[in-house]
Amino acid sequence: MSELHLYRSLIFVPGIRQNMIEKAQGFDADVIVLDLEDSVPPAEKEQARPIVRRAIPALAGLGHIVHVRVNPVGSGLARDDLAASSSARTASTAKASTPAAASASTAYSFQRVLRWRPTAAEQGWILIKPAAPLPY
């Protein structure tokens, strides 16, 4: 069974902002999340991917845990985000973080895209349902 990691702190850094990525190198967060979703304007998403691709090994080389927050599957951008963040050079040093989800269907969408088989622990998280309807 795979280990479930609990992190105390995550810092989200816009994937398009090289200066902010460089500054994040000095932070003591448990995880640095390079964001390709909300913090990158639509017109700059293509430009952000190579920045993120280069940043992953640089940050990992300094001992940071790196995640990449990708766009939703339905946006048509997720596959390119995943390809950019999981090139042969970076595959062992970064994990994809899914966008905010209102339901488990987002996780299942990524499961289909990645051909991912969740562990028992991950399956438990996917099946959790909110106790009350979400406010949006």
Structural features:
136 residues; single chain; TIM Barrel; 5 helices; four-stranded parallel sheet; alpha/beta; disordered C terminus; globular
Strands across the major sheet, in which order?
A: 1-2-3-4
Which percent band covers the strand fraction? 5-15%
CATH superfamily: Phosphoenolpyruvate-binding domains
What share of residues is helical?
Answer: 25-40%
**What is the ordering of alpha helices and beta strands?**
EHEHEHEHH
User: How many helices?
Assistant: 5
CATH level 1 class label: Alpha Beta
| Weakly predicted, low-confidence segments | 121-136
Instruction: Return the structural class.
Output: alpha/beta
Question: Can you put this structure into words, describing what you see?
Answer:
This protein is an alpha/beta fold. It has a single domain, classed as Phosphoenolpyruvate-binding domains (TIM Barrel, Alpha-Beta Barrel). Helices cover 37% and strands 14% of the residues. The chain is built from five helices and four strands, in the order βαβαβαβαα. The protein has helices at 18-24, 45-61, 78-85, 105-114, 120-127, and strands at residues 10-14, 31-35, 65-69, 94-97. The protein starts with 9 loop residues before the first strand and ends in a 9-residue tail after the last helix.
